[in-house]
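Attaching the record inline, Q. Sequence:
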Amino acid sequence: MNLSKLFEAQKVVRKKIIETNGLEGQDLVQNLILALRVELGELANEQRSWKHWSKDRKPRTEVICSSCEGKGFLDFWYPFECEHSTSKCGCENGIIANKNPLLEEYADCISFALELALELGIESGAKVEEILIPYSARKNITKMLNQVYLSISDLEININYHYTRKNAVLSEYNGLLTNLITLGILLGFEYEQIEAAYFEKNAINLKRQEEGY
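Structure, as predicted:
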Protein backbone atom coordinates (compact mmCIF):
# COMPACT_ATOMS: atom_id res chain seq x y z
CA MET A 1 0.00 0.00 0.00
CA ASN A 2 1.48 3.30 -1.13
CA LEU A 3 0.64 5.97 1.46
CA SER A 4 2.05 8.73 -0.76
CA LYS A 5 -0.50 7.85 -3.46
CA LEU A 6 -3.29 8.00 -0.90
CA PHE A 7 -2.17 11.40 0.37
CA GLU A 8 -2.02 12.78 -3.18
CA ALA A 9 -5.53 11.54 -3.93
CA GLN A 10 -6.84 13.03 -0.66
CA LYS A 11 -5.35 16.41 -1.58
CA VAL A 12 -7.60 16.52 -4.65
CA VAL A 13 -10.75 15.88 -2.61
CA ARG A 14 -9.63 18.29 0.10
CA LYS A 15 -9.10 21.08 -2.44
CA LYS A 16 -12.56 20.48 -3.88
CA ILE A 17 -14.21 20.44 -0.44
CA ILE A 18 -12.56 23.71 0.59
CA GLU A 19 -13.36 25.46 -2.67
CA THR A 20 -16.94 24.20 -2.89
CA ASN A 21 -17.83 25.05 0.70
CA GLY A 22 -15.88 28.30 1.05
CA LEU A 23 -13.62 26.98 3.80
CA GLU A 24 -10.43 28.80 2.86
CA GLY A 25 -8.47 29.84 5.97
CA GLN A 26 -10.74 28.02 8.42
CA ASP A 27 -9.34 25.74 11.12
CA LEU A 28 -10.96 22.35 10.53
CA VAL A 29 -8.87 20.29 12.95
CA GLN A 30 -11.58 19.75 15.59
CA ASN A 31 -14.16 18.92 12.92
CA LEU A 32 -11.87 16.27 11.49
CA ILE A 33 -10.98 14.79 14.88
CA LEU A 34 -14.68 14.42 15.65
CA ALA A 35 -15.37 13.00 12.17
CA LEU A 36 -12.66 10.38 12.64
CA ARG A 37 -14.11 9.37 16.00
CA VAL A 38 -17.60 9.09 14.48
CA GLU A 39 -16.36 6.99 11.56
CA LEU A 40 -14.42 4.73 13.93
CA GLY A 41 -17.65 4.22 15.87
CA GLU A 42 -19.47 3.30 12.67
CA LEU A 43 -16.68 0.86 11.85
CA ALA A 44 -16.97 -0.72 15.30
CA ASN A 45 -20.74 -1.01 14.84
CA GLU A 46 -20.23 -2.98 11.62
CA GLN A 47 -17.54 -5.17 13.24
CA ARG A 48 -19.82 -6.23 16.15
CA SER A 49 -17.62 -8.87 17.86
CA TRP A 50 -17.38 -6.69 20.99
CA LYS A 51 -21.17 -6.72 21.52
CA HIS A 52 -21.15 -9.45 24.18
CA TRP A 53 -24.83 -8.81 24.99
CA SER A 54 -25.91 -9.79 21.46
CA LYS A 55 -26.09 -13.18 19.76
CA ASP A 56 -25.47 -11.43 16.45
CA ARG A 57 -21.75 -10.70 16.59
CA LYS A 58 -20.86 -11.49 13.00
CA PRO A 59 -19.01 -8.66 11.20
CA ARG A 60 -20.99 -7.02 8.41
CA THR A 61 -18.86 -7.95 5.40
CA GLU A 62 -21.71 -8.44 2.93
CA VAL A 63 -25.12 -6.98 2.13
CA ILE A 64 -28.21 -9.16 1.79
CA CYS A 65 -30.25 -8.39 -1.32
CA SER A 66 -33.51 -6.72 -0.30
CA SER A 67 -35.29 -7.73 -3.51
CA CYS A 68 -35.02 -11.47 -2.95
CA GLU A 69 -34.32 -11.27 0.81
CA GLY A 70 -31.15 -13.30 0.42
CA LYS A 71 -32.77 -16.24 -1.41
CA GLY A 72 -31.16 -15.57 -4.80
CA PHE A 73 -34.48 -15.84 -6.63
CA LEU A 74 -37.73 -13.90 -6.85
CA ASP A 75 -41.14 -15.33 -5.96
CA PHE A 76 -44.21 -14.44 -7.98
CA TRP A 77 -47.73 -15.31 -6.89
CA TYR A 78 -50.73 -14.83 -9.13
CA PRO A 79 -53.78 -15.07 -6.85
CA PHE A 80 -56.41 -15.04 -9.58
CA GLU A 81 -54.76 -17.89 -11.45
CA CYS A 82 -53.59 -19.56 -8.21
CA GLU A 83 -50.17 -19.93 -9.72
CA HIS A 84 -46.69 -19.53 -8.34
CA SER A 85 -43.43 -19.00 -10.23
CA THR A 86 -39.85 -18.00 -9.55
CA SER A 87 -37.07 -16.27 -11.47
CA LYS A 88 -33.38 -15.69 -10.80
CA CYS A 89 -32.56 -12.44 -9.00
CA GLY A 90 -29.88 -10.12 -10.38
CA CYS A 91 -27.79 -10.46 -7.22
CA GLU A 92 -25.18 -13.13 -6.49
CA ASN A 93 -26.93 -15.90 -4.56
CA GLY A 94 -28.78 -13.42 -2.39
CA ILE A 95 -25.79 -11.13 -1.80
CA ILE A 96 -25.20 -7.68 -3.34
CA ALA A 97 -21.94 -7.91 -5.27
CA ASN A 98 -18.95 -5.76 -4.28
CA LYS A 99 -20.53 -4.45 -1.08
CA ASN A 100 -18.60 -4.78 2.16
CA PRO A 101 -19.94 -2.39 4.86
CA LEU A 102 -17.03 -3.12 7.21
CA LEU A 103 -14.43 -2.31 4.57
CA GLU A 104 -16.36 0.78 3.45
CA GLU A 105 -16.41 2.18 6.98
CA TYR A 106 -12.71 1.44 7.35
CA ALA A 107 -12.01 3.34 4.12
CA ASP A 108 -13.88 6.31 5.61
CA CYS A 109 -11.58 6.18 8.64
CA ILE A 110 -8.53 6.20 6.38
CA SER A 111 -9.93 9.16 4.43
CA PHE A 112 -10.43 11.28 7.53
CA ALA A 113 -7.05 10.28 8.96
CA LEU A 114 -5.36 11.47 5.76
CA GLU A 115 -7.44 14.64 5.70
CA LEU A 116 -6.50 15.38 9.30
CA ALA A 117 -2.80 15.14 8.45
CA LEU A 118 -3.21 17.52 5.52
CA GLU A 119 -5.11 19.98 7.71
CA LEU A 120 -2.27 19.84 10.25
CA GLY A 121 0.27 20.45 7.52
CA ILE A 122 2.03 17.14 8.07
CA GLU A 123 2.34 14.05 5.93
CA SER A 124 3.51 10.70 7.20
CA GLY A 125 6.42 9.27 5.27
CA ALA A 126 6.25 5.97 7.10
CA LYS A 127 6.21 2.76 5.11
CA VAL A 128 3.38 0.40 5.95
CA GLU A 129 5.63 -2.63 6.11
CA GLU A 130 7.81 -0.89 8.69
CA ILE A 131 5.16 0.57 10.96
CA LEU A 132 3.34 -2.75 11.34
CA ILE A 133 6.31 -4.74 12.64
CA PRO A 134 6.04 -3.72 16.35
CA TYR A 135 2.34 -4.55 16.36
CA SER A 136 2.41 -7.94 14.63
CA ALA A 137 1.61 -9.84 17.84
CA ARG A 138 -1.65 -8.00 18.54
CA LYS A 139 -4.73 -10.14 18.01
CA ASN A 140 -7.50 -8.44 20.01
CA ILE A 141 -9.65 -6.35 17.68
CA THR A 142 -11.62 -4.73 20.51
CA LYS A 143 -8.40 -3.68 22.21
CA MET A 144 -7.13 -2.28 18.91
CA LEU A 145 -10.32 -0.28 18.36
CA ASN A 146 -9.88 1.24 21.80
CA GLN A 147 -6.21 1.88 21.05
CA VAL A 148 -7.12 3.87 17.94
CA TYR A 149 -9.54 5.97 20.01
CA LEU A 150 -6.75 6.55 22.53
CA SER A 151 -4.36 7.53 19.73
CA ILE A 152 -6.87 10.12 18.49
CA SER A 153 -7.07 11.59 22.00
CA ASP A 154 -3.28 11.60 22.37
CA LEU A 155 -2.97 13.45 19.08
CA GLU A 156 -5.64 15.96 20.09
CA ILE A 157 -3.87 16.68 23.39
CA ASN A 158 -0.58 17.12 21.56
CA ILE A 159 -2.20 19.49 19.06
CA ASN A 160 -3.74 21.58 21.83
CA TYR A 161 -0.51 21.96 23.79
CA HIS A 162 2.26 21.57 21.20
CA TYR A 163 0.69 22.73 17.96
CA THR A 164 3.77 24.70 16.92
CA ARG A 165 6.04 21.69 17.47
CA LYS A 166 5.45 19.86 14.20
CA ASN A 167 7.79 16.99 15.09
CA ALA A 168 5.82 16.22 18.25
CA VAL A 169 2.51 16.34 16.38
CA LEU A 170 3.91 14.19 13.57
CA SER A 171 5.10 11.60 16.07
CA GLU A 172 1.63 11.30 17.60
CA TYR A 173 0.03 11.22 14.16
CA ASN A 174 2.32 8.39 13.05
CA GLY A 175 1.22 6.48 16.12
CA LEU A 176 -2.42 7.00 15.16
CA LEU A 177 -1.83 5.95 11.56
CA THR A 178 0.12 2.89 12.72
CA ASN A 179 -2.73 1.75 14.95
CA LEU A 180 -5.36 2.45 12.30
CA ILE A 181 -3.56 0.43 9.63
CA THR A 182 -2.84 -2.34 12.12
CA LEU A 183 -6.55 -2.43 12.92
CA GLY A 184 -7.30 -2.91 9.23
CA ILE A 185 -4.94 -5.89 9.09
CA LEU A 186 -6.55 -7.40 12.20
CA LEU A 187 -9.95 -6.99 10.55
CA GLY A 188 -8.67 -9.25 7.80
CA PHE A 189 -8.03 -6.72 5.05
CA GLU A 190 -5.11 -7.03 2.66
CA TYR A 191 -3.12 -3.92 1.71
CA GLU A 192 -4.54 -4.13 -1.81
CA GLN A 193 -8.10 -4.22 -0.46
CA ILE A 194 -7.54 -1.19 1.73
CA GLU A 195 -6.02 0.81 -1.09
CA ALA A 196 -8.75 -0.16 -3.57
CA ALA A 197 -11.51 0.65 -1.06
CA TYR A 198 -9.93 4.02 -0.31
CA PHE A 199 -9.71 5.02 -3.97
CA GLU A 200 -13.29 3.90 -4.56
CA LYS A 201 -14.52 6.05 -1.67
CA ASN A 202 -12.26 8.90 -2.79
CA ALA A 203 -13.99 8.91 -6.18
CA ILE A 204 -17.41 8.90 -4.49
CA ASN A 205 -16.46 11.80 -2.22
CA LEU A 206 -15.17 13.82 -5.17
CA LYS A 207 -18.38 13.17 -7.12
CA ARG A 208 -20.48 14.19 -4.12
CA GLN A 209 -18.73 17.55 -3.96
CA GLU A 210 -19.27 18.08 -7.69
CA GLU A 211 -22.96 17.31 -7.28
CA GLY A 212 -23.47 19.61 -4.28
CA TYR A 213 -23.51 16.98 -1.52
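The chain has a mean pLDDT of 83. The first strand starts at residue 73 and ends at 78.

More tomorrow.
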